[in-house]
Design a protein that fits this description.
It comes from Weissella minor. With about 80 residues, this protein is mainly alpha-helical. It has one domain: Non-ribosomal Peptide Synthetase Peptidyl Carrier Protein, Chain A. The chain contains four helices and no strands. The longest helix has 16 residues. The radius of gyration is 11 Å and the shape is globular. The two termini are about 10 Å apart. The model has no long low-confidence stretch (mean pLDDT about 95).
Length: about 80
């Protein structure tokens, strides 16, 4: 999957989960600051991404995934 296609899919997942307009999100969007996702929301989103993109995200790695770009980079590097 190409980077832009993956970015668009993740933006759409985030927008859907948090009821946001996808046009307001970009690679620099910080899920913990810009959209105020609590830890439960964040874990649920990561679980959904694991299923969607066939990539296992450990708790240790999840702590580093704050922006959409961080998530894209991780998935591109760790897809099964």
């Amino acid at each position: 999957m190409e980077r832009q296609e993956l970015t668009d899919k993740i933006i759409n997942l985030v927008a859907e989960r948090f009821e946001l307009d996808p046009a307001t999100l970009n690679g620099q969007t910080d899920l913990t600051v810009d959209i105020d996702a609590d830890s439960i929301d964040f874990v649920e989103l990561l679980l959904e991404m694991e299923d969607e993109f066939d990539a296992e995200i450990s708790d240790e790695n999840a702590e580093k995934l704050h922006t959409i770009d961080n998530i894209v980079d991780f998935i591109l590097a760790h897809q099964n």
